[in-house]
């Protein structure tokens, strides 16, 4: 288990694969994740990349820059609320990532298939076609 924000930062920047992998696969407490988000803004996207990060932290990460929201949108374990929130993101690349997500609910994909951005529409329609 990752026990501190500084440990996460050290693991993430390590040149050793086993340490680098720990940053992507090991759990941390809510307090540790919040500390990383607050004190290591450059690592926010890597918090989203972690396989065990809780939904509460993913929700928090949606308040930050496009790159972070893009990483959150790629997660398959999103809640309905997060899928909905990210499907109306002001940035089309985030909406496109939601359209590409294999776990996006069909009703949201249908909505994205009429998005104002043609790339979002294309990806949403492709994902819909793959599910039928």
Structural class: mainly alpha
Please estimate the helix content: 55-70%
**Residue runs with pLDDT of under 50 for 5 or more positions:** none
The outline comes out as: elongated
Provide mean pLDDT, rounded: 96
Organism: Variovorax paradoxus
Protein name: Leucine rich repeat variant
Please tell me about this protein's structure.
This protein has 132 residues and is mostly helical. It has two domains: 64 residues, no CATH class; 57 residues, no CATH class. It is 66% helix and 0% strand. It has ten helices and no strands. Helix 1 crosses helix 2 and helix 1 packs across helix 3. The chain is elongated. The mean pLDDT is 96.
Which key phrases capture this entry?
66% helix; ARM-like; Leucine rich repeat variant; 2 domains; 10 helices; 132 residues; ARM-type_fold; mainly alpha
What's this entry about, in short?
The protein is mostly helical and 132 residues long. It is 66% helix and 0% strand. The longest helix has 14 residues, at 118-131.
Task: Give a topology summary.
Elements: H1 5-13, H2 17-25, H3 30-39, H4 44-49, H5 55-61, H6 66-73, H7 80-87, H8 92-100, H9 106-112, H10 118-131
Helix pairs in contact: 1-2, 1-3, 6-8, 8-10, 9-10
